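Q: Got a minute? One more chain.
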Amino acid sequence: MLAQRTLKSLTRAIGVGVHSGQRVELTLKPAPVDTGIVFRRVDLPQVVEIPVSATAVCDTRLATALSPGGDPGAPKVKTVEHLMSACSGLGIDNLIVDITGEEVPILDGSAASFVFLLQSAGIELQSAPKRFLRVKKTVEVRDGEGKRLMWARLEPFEGYKLTFEIDFDHPAVSQTGQHVVFDMASGQYKREIARARTFGFTKDVEMMRSRGLGLGGSMDNVVVVDDHKVLNVGGLRYDDEFVKHKMLDAIGDMYMVGHPLLAAYSAFKSGHGLNNLLLRALLADPSAYEIVSFDDASKAPAGFADLAPAW
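A: Always. Here it is, folded:
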């Protein structure tokens, strides 16, 4: 049987929210089978539980935010995509995330710190089959026209492969790779994707801060780009770090569906909002997907039965 996974022990991290700038503590805890990933706002007078699902997404401006049932007026947890990406990359099915504020700490701006935390806690196999969402027919969403066109698509594929393309007319970005293809079966998520950091442009800083955003951003957790170049000492971690971070985000956004996908995801200039619309379009058509498990792990697509090695 290809089994569900949770943590062996709990682990903690303290950091700041990239937008709020506020200190927050995160505690990652094992969870029983079929729990899924559940965020818990433990700073409130009564603990509020927010189970992850595509319909729990309540805001997608600059980050993905969740609330109970997607209610925009309910307590939220924001900037969940990097932690969700790490959970997807390591195949974590069940996890309790206690948080003392409304924004997941940005840590180093990538998913690598979350991968380290999860692997440090240890990953445990559970006595229930892992359930995949297998895409049975192509689903696509599009937005805009001409130079403003963006799209995202899910197609049938017996595995999980992602293709992402960005199109930034900017000297520092256009001289890097803007197209990337990654197959989760390679087992290289930690090495090839997880270390890609979020990025921002100096020209946008004043506007963001006037709206109460980006207050916790710094060169410790953001790739900062001026009109011509990357300002961070040491430059980029990957030659194509910009597009790899967008793929890292997409992996996290796609995991909001509540199950690992058996699908080929491809996108052009997509973001959190379009990624969530894609999941909602998929779920709106029951004939487009099915939930499957593998009693014989050897019959699962390559790579899915392997536990990621220790960090």
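A: The mean pLDDT is 92.
Q: Perfect, thanks.
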